[in-house]
């Protein structure tokens, strides 16, 4: 197998035809007539594109068949280095950009395969690669949502990661600020996939003791969609999961606060907060562990603990109000 540099700068290699295999083409059906036309042309054909690790053709199956029709034993190739998923995306891009056009069915199937491999990519990013409209990709995503892994972010065609909803972005920003208090807001914005202004607002809200998400925005739907109302069942579990994440972020921030860590009462409080918290994912396991004859007693203790913590919270709130306005004493 020899190699030489092309005028454009990419290195080509001469490879035995029998060493190459099909594999990454987004076409369902090979056009034999097109291959015959290529075999009859006297103009030199460009090198085909091959995945180096597997020796499977990414772009150029018709050129490869033309070489075989002409009895050639070797063909010029350019190698592609990357994963098989990336190789398929490259195959789609190459076939959309030039040569024999892909059918609409080929492009839709390619979009579905890319959605399965890269669910975090935006509809527009996938549309650009497949030659489809972004709304067509969105419809394909909705139809395949049961089989396609879902992501809370989308990677746009400009390379920027954006959250599907402002709510999720703000929650991620709050977690990042709590876990990385010394990190700049610009880095927090990158980590959470939000704007610098949003990161600044989230930090200001946390410093005031407010929730990172304004009260009017606490739905969890996609941008441009009405937030769904919390309901019993799956919706209620989603709300509890979001609350648990917020509590975990707040607790991590408290545990780093020297005003609590460096006093005995403060450390005792942190231990109580840690020990009395139940992660939402543990609920089902713990409920199942309670025998039927103990359920009433456990529930009563849980209610009393909840009432004690509620009174503790009210006392803290009364003290906060009194310190803000001594005249209320």
UniProtKB/TrEMBL annotation:
The ParB-like N-terminal domain is annotated at 13-96
- Which residues lie in Polar residues bias regions? 145-155
Q: Where is this region: Disordered?
A: 142-171, 205-242
> InterPro entries from the entry?
ParB/Sulfiredoxin_sf (IPR036086), ParB_N (IPR003115)
Name this protein carries in UniProt: ParB-like N-terminal domain-containing protein
Species whose genome carries this gene: Microbispora cellulosiformans
